[in-house]
Write a structure and sequence with these properties.
Structural class: mainly beta
Number of strands: 11
Helix content: 10-25%
Largest sheet: 11 strands, mixed
Order of helices and strands: HEEEEEEEEEEE
Distance between the termini: 58 Å
Radius of gyration: 19 Å
Number of helices: 1
Strand content: over 45%
């Protein structure tokens, strides 16, 4: 029987723990090129409505070039629209600009949201669903969105 020297066992255990910690830090976030999409979530939809809303805790562009979110799709709704708050109303826009070397929150209490139009069923706390987002430079990515009650700001 071959045994590892104690030093190698400690190094292997430490490396495994470091990899586990890295995996946990991205457990509910995704990377697409220079973009980091952190904590995709949706809030429960109001009963009887055909519209829901999805968000990202943070959208980070670590690259040297700007990008734009152009849209998305999901099997839980017939359309995904990008909306920007202007004064007390929401306006649908063609794209969300993401400056180089920037961080942009897309939170439920912020200025941007993804409107899920034509919901096929109400969004309920605890549900999870796929959402594919399409970017001008970075391409597309499928995220796993969790429906949850939002924390207070």
């Amino acid at each position: 029987m071959h045994t590892l020297p104690r030093r190698h066992l400690i190094q292997a255990t430490g490396g495994s723990l470091a990899l586990l910690a890295c995996g946990l830090s991205l457990a509910h976030g995704s990377q697409l090129g220079d973009l980091t999409l952190d904590h995709p979530y949706a809030i429960p939809s109001a009963p009887g409505t055909l519209e829901g809303f999805a968000y990202l805790r943070l959208l980070r562009n670590g690259g040297r070039q700007a990008d734009r979110l152009l849209g998305g799709h999901t099997p839980v709704a017939s359309a995904v629209l990008i909306q920007q708050r202007q004064a007390q109303t929401w306006r649908t826009v063609d794209a969300l600009p993401i400056a180089a070397q920037s961080e942009l929150p897309l939170r439920h209490d912020g200025a941007w949201r993804l409107s899920l139009q034509g919901l096929k069923a109400p969004l309920q706390a605890g549900d999870r669903f796929p959402l594919t987002l399409r970017f001008e430079r970075s391409g597309s990515i499928e995220l796993r969105v969790w429906v949850q009650q939002p924390r207070q700001a």
